[in-house]
Amino acid sequence: MEKKRRRKKPAAAPDPGRCEAVRLPDGRELWLRPVHPGDAGPIAGAFDLLSEDEVRRRYLHPVKALAPVYLAQLVAPDPGRSYVVVAAEPLPPGEALVGAVARVDLDPGTESAEFAILVSHFVAGQGLGKLMMKRIVEWAQAHGLKRLWGDVLEDNAAMLALAQAVGFRREHIPGSGGQVRVTLDLR
C-alpha cells in the first residue's frame, strides 16, 4: 500500500483576535489581546496615571489628555490598516485596567507601517514591550509589509534597547530635536 504524501500547510497568519494570558515576573497576570471599543474608558483613565515623562516619551511632546477622536480611532482600528494590542487585567474590556498599548498603522500607498508602544511604569521592565512588539511584527508580516518604523526620543533608552534587541536599525533624523527613527526590515 502506497503512503500518501502530506503537504505542508502554509503558516497561518496570526489570529488578530487571540487573547494570551501572560504571567509577569512579579507574579501578576495580564491578558495580551486586541483592543476593544470598551477599552476607551480604562485607557483614558490609565493615561491620567502616567507621568509627564512617560507621555512625552511616547508622544514626543507633552500631552495633557487623549483627544476624543484619537481615543475613538485607537479603540476601533481599521482592520486592514491598523492593529492595536493591549496588556490588560484579566477582566472583560471596559472593566480591565490597561497597562500597556501597542499600535501599528499602515503608511498609505507603501509597504511600510509606523508603530508605537507605551508601557506604563506600573508594569514596565517585565518583558511586555517585547511581547507586544512581537505581536505587531507578526501583524505586519501577515499583511505583507516590508518595513516597520517608529520615531523615538534619543533619551528613551528603554524603547531604543527594545528596538535594538528585536533587530531595528537606528537612524538620526536631521532637525528633529532629539529624535531617532528605528526601522525593521521585514523581508
Automatic annotation (TrEMBL):
Its domain of life? Answer: Bacteria
Q: Which key words are in the record?
A: Acyltransferase, Transferase
Alphabetical list of PROSITE patterns matching this protein? GNAT
Q: Where is the N-acetyltransferase domain?
A: 30-187
Instruction: Check the record and name the InterPro entries matching this protein.
Output: Acyl_CoA_acyltransferase, Bact_Acetyltransf, GNAT_dom
**Region labeled Disordered — which residues?**
1-20
Q: Which SUPFAM superfamilies match?
A: Acyl-CoA N-acyltransferases (Nat) (SSF55729)
* One Pfam family here: Acetyltransf_3
Query: What spans are recorded as compositionally biased (Basic residues)?
Result: 1-10
Q: What is this protein called in UniProt?
A: Acyl-CoA synthetase
Q: What is the lineage of its organism?
A: Bacteria, Pseudomonadati, Pseudomonadota, Gammaproteobacteria, Lysobacterales
